[in-house]
Amino acid sequence: MAAAAAGSGSLSSLRLRLSSRLALVTGGGSGIGRAVCQRFAEEGSAVVVVDVDESSAEETLRSLPHGDQRHSVFVADVSCPQSVHSLVSAVQQFSRPPCVAVNCAGITMDGLLLKMEAEAFERVLKVNLMGTFLVIQAVARALIGSGAKRGSIVNLGSIVGKVGNVGQTNYTASKAGVVALTKSSAKELARFGIRCNAIVPGFIDTRMAAKVPPKVLDKVLQLVPMGRLGDASEVASVCAFLASDDSSYITGASVEVTGGLFM
Ligand code: NAP
Predict the structure, then answer these.
(1) Cβ burial, residue 61 (10 Å; 0-12/13-18/19+)
(2) For 137-190, what is each residue's pLDDT tens digit?
(3) What percent of the chain clears pLDDT 90, i.e. is strictly above it?
(4) How many domains is the chain partitioned into structurally?
(5) Is any atom of ligand 1 closer than 6 Å to the C-beta of 257?
(6) What is the residue with the minimal CA distance to atom 41 of ligand 1?
(7) Helix (H, G, I), strand (E, B) or coil at 199
(8) Which of 21, 91, 131, 258 could be stapled to 78 by a disulfide with Cβ–Cβ 3.0 to 4.6 Å?
(9) Cα–ligand 1 centroid distance for 106 (angstroms)
(10) Active site residue 171
């Protein structure tokens, strides 16, 4: 996407804002999570690529500068408390507590309200909302326990969490919850030097958006003032800003990355 490539900026002109950071990125095997891993590695961070699917996480690792010398892969299911606990303990033993965490793991299980099974509602809430809670809690506990004085947590919401969407009662509820969870976490964690912010993307060109029926996507694009889907790299660059000290006085915020959709 030519316009997107131009928007991702010239990295050579940027400082290595994330050097000496260890960043944990869930959902790192695909889409936005993979782009975040790549952007963070380019900005000097060591990256822990986390995904439920090992092979996709390994593929992300191979795409990073300095590959497995500097970065690592961990398999975890964010919806499972034991899995998240083991993940953060293992990362700590292997290295140190991550001072940056980005919660990109997410799923959709779409269906109309009148037809949706309770299991589909529960599963989406468990991965998208409880998974984000579990990672925030485990990383914050590890950081505070280690005496670290700063941290930055970034959570992925969605613009449909603000405006609703037909066929996504489960997903929209989970993403509205992520924004509220981010604000409450920001209030509780500020005194420990840990900032917590959300990114609220519109429609981004990844596997998740590819599941949206073409007819629906065409209609959405007509509503996007910028007239195109976003690129995962355009979300990753905002993540890098929120992870870095360039955003040192920002916490509890939700940054919309939507091309102007539903502003
Ligand atoms: P994606 O390409 O489907 O990536 C999501 C990743 O999360 C996948 O690698 C997936 O692994 C992983 N994952 C799923 N369940 C997991 C679990 N229980 N534990 C650990 N990892 C798990 O989607 P994306 O578009 O990059 O989305 C990233 C985030 O942005 C999501 O939270 C999404 O809701 C949000 N978002 C996306 C858009 C968009 O238009 N793309 C818009 C707004 C918000 P598997 O592939 O193995 O399931």
Answers:
(1) buried
(2) 999 999 999 999 999 999 999 999 999 999 999 999 999 999 999 999 999 999
(3) 89
(4) 1
(5) no
(6) 204
(7) strand
(8) 131
(9) 4
(10) yes
Helix (H, G, I), strand (E, B) or coil at 250: coil
Which pLDDT belongs to residue 66? 81
For residue 222, the domain's CATH number is 3.40.50.720
State which H helix or E strand residue 198 sits in.
strand 194-201
Q: What is the distance in A from the centroid of ligand 1 to the CA of 258?
A: 17
Substitution candidate for ligand 1 out of 73, 107, 128 with most atoms within 8 A of CB: 107
Q: How far is the CA of 261 from the centre of ligand 1 (A)?
A: 20
Beta carbon of 80 within 6 Å of any ligand 1 atom: no
Residue 243 belongs to some domain of the structure = yes
40, 121, 171, 203: which is the annotated catalytic residue?
171
Which amino acid appears at position 90 of this protein?
Answer: A
What would the pLDDT profile of 220-234 be if each residue is shown by its tens digit? 999 999 999 999 999
pLDDT in tens, 7-22: 445 555 567 999 999 9
Q: What is the pLDDT of residue 4?
A: 43
User: What pLDDT does 95 receive?
Assistant: 86
Give a yes or no: residue 90 inside a domain.
yes
Cβ within 8 Å of residue 207, ≥6 positions away: 30, 31
Q: CB of 177 closer than 6 A to ligand 1?
A: no
State which residues form the domain around 144. 20-253
Give 174 Cα–ligand 1 centroid separation in angstroms: 13
Domain annotation covers residue 165: yes
Examine residue 259 and state whether it is found in any structural domain, yes or no.
no
Q: Confirm if 257 and 230 have CB atoms less than 8 A apart.
A: yes
DSSP secondary structure, 181-197, as one string: HHHHHHHHHGGGTEEEE
